[in-house]
Design goal:
With 246 residues, this protein is α+β, with helices and mostly antiparallel strands. It has 6 helices and 17 strands.
Length: 246
């Protein structure tokens, strides 16, 4: 089966991502692991370029371009953000119906096991790469319930930047939504443009406020509107354009 690509040669991992194999980063890992063949020969060089005439196999299976699909899910807590788990734990794919899973989709970025909210899924490896590469500043907004009544000093620190894991965070947008004095907690909104591991939790802990509940309510302008917990829907054409414009 011939891969349909542009007349000019493109990097192998980019073509694989466009064919829905996985994100570009994951495709690079597959190449390095000697799981990819081009015209019958194993390729391990990440700089390898292929043309529309080349035949590509991953784990012995021929790949071809698929129709690109895009979804937004309201991820519940208690699910791993991955397509599979060798320990048999629940993943977000358990929430996807069999018909939708006929197309090989994967999550864009991650949400922690105990974090809920906006999660994007696609088979468009190029878009996934665009939105998750470290230098790309894509706004992500979280509603955060913390223990204690947060004060302006802590809010100011969160806005200006916090040292976590030896690196200062970028400026954030922080708003106090409400206080619950009876239960000694605060609800705040935090918008960040980074995607470091457990970043929001670590930021709050660094200023002395433990996170009780964390929910992502927006990713690149895509929200949970109309979605119940565990539900998902296809992105609308204008939403896809928004993501590609970031």
């Amino acid at each position: 089966m011939v891969i349909v690509v542009d007349d000019n040669k493109e990097r192998l991992q980019k073509v694989m991502a466009a064919c829905g194999v996985a994100s570009r980063r994951k495709c690079e890992e597959l190449i390095s692991a000697k799981r990819v063949k081009v015209n019958g020969s194993i390729v391990t060089e990440l700089g390898t370029k292929v043309s529309k005439k080349d035949i590509i196999e991953v784990d012995g299976k021929l790949i071809s371009r698929q129709e690109l699909v895009y979804y937004v899910m309201n991820k519940p807590t208690g699910y791993l953000t991955t397509v599979s788990d060798d320990r048999g734990r629940r993943t977000i794919m358990d929430l996807i119906d069999p018909e939708t899973k006929k197309t090989r989709i994967f999550p864009i970025g991650r949400l922690d096991y105990d974090t809920s909210g906006v999660l994007l899924l696609t088979n468009d490896g190029d878009l996934s790469y665009r939105l998750t590469r470290s230098q790309k500043e894509v706004a992500k907004t979280y509603q955060v319930r913390v223990n204690g009544i947060i004060d302006q000093n802590a809010v100011t620190k969160l806005i200006k930047g916090i040292m976590i894991d030896g690196v200062m965070t970028k400026r954030a947008i922080v708003d106090v939504i409400s206080f619950d004095k009876k239960n000694n907690s605060s609800l705040i909104s935090i918008s960040i443009t980074e995607g470091r591991n457990r970043q929001v939790r670590k930021m709050c802990e660094a200023v002395g406020f433990e996170v009780k509940k964390l929910k992502r309510v927006s990713f690149g302008g895509i929200t949970l509107e109309g979605l119940g917990v565990g539900e998902y829907r296809e992105l609308k054409p204008h939403e896809i354009k928004i993501l590609y414009s970031l």
